[in-house]
Specification:
The protein has 162 residues and is of the alpha/beta class. The protein is built from 6 helices and 5 strands. The protein has a 5-stranded parallel beta sheet, with helices on both faces. Helix 5 links the parallel strand 4 and strand 5.
Length: 162
């Protein structure tokens, strides 16, 4: 297979490759401090199991990153991926003004990607995203190796922020 037609391995970032535990506190207050939450992302430690899976996947697949982070976080995200030694790959991010639930935005992107290429797997920690992707026929690896707060899960679903 040439690099242009390899299957895709699609990886979420927060809670899958990046440990967000240190910044979840910004979502536990009212109102939630989204600016501080995203500003702290460059300090995320990597999640070893997710990083290992991404590196393994790169041997046979093109790695694509699919995140609910807003587009304004692109530079920080690109730099973080490079510092962790993760495979180079396209990053699909949420528009800055897009507040739809992650399960909707991510499924839309998956379907778009699948029109052109085989998707070998989606790796994500959000159960609602995983459920929707499985229902749509995608192979899902549930990233259950991080501790995600209920506040973050609620924010992903109700506020469409990550």
């Amino acid at each position: 297979m040439t690099p242009d037609n390899r299957p895709l391995a699609v990886f979420d970032l927060d809670g899958t490759l990046a440990d967000t535990a240190h910044r979840q506190r910004f979502l536990e207050r009212t109102p939630r401090d989204w600016n501080a939450f995203f500003a702290a992302a460059p300090q995320d430690p990597p999640l070893p199991r997710g990083v290992e899976l991404a590196l393994e996947s790169a041997a046979e697949c093109e790695v694509v990153y699919l995140t609910g982070r807003p587009e304004r976080c692109r530079t920080d995200t690109e730099e973080w991926l490079t510092r962790q030694g993760l495979p180079k790959g396209r990053i699909r991010m949420r528009r800055n003004d897009d507040r739809r639930p992650a399960r909707r935005t991510k499924l839309e992107v998956l379907r778009d990607l699948a029109r052109k290429r085989e998707i070998r797997m989606l790796v994500d920690d959000d159960d609602l995203v995983c459920d929707e992707a499985e229902r749509a026929g995608f192979r899902v690896v549930r990233a259950d190796w991080a501790n995600t707060s209920e506040d973050l899960k609620d924010a992903q679903e109700r506020e469409g922020r990550t």
